[in-house]
Write a structure and sequence with these properties.
Helices cover about 85% and strands about 0% of the residues. The chain is mostly helical and about 350 residues long. Helix 8 runs antiparallel to helix 11 and helix 10 runs antiparallel to helix 11. It is globular and about 80 Å long.
C-alpha cells in the first residue's frame, strides 16, 4: 500500500510546476475557508473588476487608452449602482413590505379553502388532517417570523458592514482596474519563472469562468426584463419583486426555477383565483422558463463546457452549505473553475518524457 501511494505521488507530483500549482490551490482554498468573511469585500471587488474588465478589453482593442477606457466603464458602473440604490431598491423594498403585510390575508383565504375540502372530498381528506396541516403551517410561520425578527436585529448590526461595502467596494474596484498591470506584476514576483502549467490553467479558467459569469449576468438581465414585461402585461401585483427573483433564479439551474415558481403561482392564484388569467399567466411563465433553458442559456453559454447535472447539484449543495446564499449563487462558477483546473491538470503520460527528449 505504501509503495502504491509513493508511486502515485511520484507520477502526479514529480513536476515542480504541478507542486507549485497544487500548493497554490491549497493555500487559496485555506484563505477562503478561514478568512472568507474578512476578505469578502476584496473577493467581491475582484469579481466586479473581472466583469468590468470584459468591457474594457474591447475598448483597448479599438486603440482606446486604458486609463480612458477604465474611467468610462467605471463611471458607467457607478451610475448603475446609484440607479439600483435610489431607484430599484426602494421599489423592491416597498413591494416586499406590501407582500409581507398581505401574507395573513392569504393564509386566512387558504385556511377557508382547506376547511371546505373535507366537505367536498371526504374520501380523500378528513377534518383531522386539515387541522394537523393548519397547525403545521402556523408552527412554520411562527418560526419564520422569529427568523425575520432575528434578521431585522442583525441587520441593524450589519449596517456598518453595508456602509463599509459601499465605501470600500468602489475604491477597490477602481484601483484594481486602473493598476491591473502593477497588481499582476506584484503577484508574479512570487511565481516561479517556469510557470507554463499555471499559465495553461489560468487560460482555461479565464475562458471558462469569464464566459460563464458574463453570459449568466446577461441572462439574468434578459429574463428579468422579459418577466417584468409579462407580469406587467397581466397587471400582476409585485411585478418588479417577482421578476427580479425570477431573473436571479437562473444562477441556480434546476433548483432556482423550481423554487421561484412557488411565489409566482401563489401570488397569481390569490390575485386572479381559479380563472383564465391565472392559466394564461402560468403558461406565459412556463414559456419564459422553457425558452431560457433551451434557447437563451445555450446561446449565451455556448463557449462554456457543460457541467453534468449531478455536478451542478453537488456544487450547489456543497458551496451552499459552506457559505449559505452567497455559496449557492457562486456554486456553478466555482464548479466551473474546478472543472477547468481538472481539464488543464497534466495527466501522468503528459509528465513522461517523450522519445525525442531522451535523445
Amino acid at each position: 500500500m505504501k509503495l502504491l501511494i509513493t508511486n502515485w505521488i511520484k507520477r502526479h507530483f514529480s513536476d515542480p510546476q504541478v507542486v507549485f500549482l497544487g500548493g497554490f490551490l491549497v493555500v487559496l482554498l485555506a484563505v477562503l475557508l478561514l478568512a472568507g468573511r474578512m476578505m469578502a469585500p476584496v473577493v467581491a471587488a475582484v469579481i466586479i473588476a473581472y466583469l468590468l474588465e470584459g468591457l474594457i478589453a474591447p475598448l483597448q482593442r479599438l486603440a482606446v487608452p486604458r486609463l480612458f477606457a477604465v474611467l468610462v466603464i467605471y463611471l458607467g458602473f457607478l451610475l448603475v449602482v446609484i440607479l439600483i440604490l435610489f431607484g430599484l431598491l426602494p421599489l423592491i423594498s416597498k413591494q416586499s413590505t406590501q407582500l409581507i403585510q398581505q401574507i395573513p390575508g392569504m393564509l386566512a383565504e387558504g385556511q377557508a379553502v382547506l376547511q371546505r375540502l373535507p366537505e367536498l372530498y371526504p374520501e380523500v381528506i378528513s377534518a383531522a388532517q386539515v387541522s394537523e396541516l393548519m397547525a403545521a403551517i402556523r408552527t412554520e410561520l411562527m418560526a419564520w417570523g422569529q427568523r425575520v425578527l432575528s434578521v431585522t436585529v442583525a441587520s441593524v448590526l450589519g449596517l456598518i458592514a453595508v456602509v463599509i461595502y459601499l465605501v470600500l467596494l468602489p475604491v477597490l474596484v477602481f484601483f484594481m482596474l486602473k493598476d491591473k498591470s502593477l497588481i499582476v506584476g506584484w503577484f508574479q514576483h512570487f511565481v516561479p519563472r517556469n510557470r507554463q502549467l499555471a499559465g495553461k490553467v489560468w487560460s482555461e479558467v479565464d475562458r471558462q469562468i469569464g464566459n460563464y459569469i458574463r453570459g449568466k449576468f446577461l441572462e439574468v438581465i434578459i429574463v428579468w426584463v422579459v418577466s417584468y414585461m409579462v407580469f406587467l402585461g397581466f397587471d400582476l401585483q409585485y411585478a418588479m419583486l417577482l421578476s427580479m427573483i425570477v431573473g436571479l433564479s437562473v444562477w441556480v439551474p434546476f433548483i432556482g426555477a423550481a423554487v421561484v415558481t412557488v411565489p409566482v403561482v401563489v401570488v397569481a392564484l390569490f390575485q386572479f383565483g381559479w380563472s383564465s388569467d391565472l392559466a394564461w399567466l402560468v403558461a406565459a411563465y412556463l414559456v419564459i422558463q422553457i425558452l431560457d433553458g433551451n434557447v437563451l442559456a445555450p446561446v449565451l453559454l455556448s463557449e462554456v463546457t457543460d457541467l453534468h447535472p449531478v455536478a451542478i447539484i453537488t456544487a450547489v449543495l456543497f458551496f451552499g452549505g459552506l457559505w449559505g446564499l452567497v455559496g449557492i449563487f457562486f456554486a456553478i462558477p466555482l464548479a466551473t473553475v474546478v472543472q477547468a483546473v481538472v481539464h488543464a491538470w497534466p495527466r501522468p503520460r503528459d509528465l513522461e518524457p517523450s522519445s525525442g527528449d531522451l535523445i
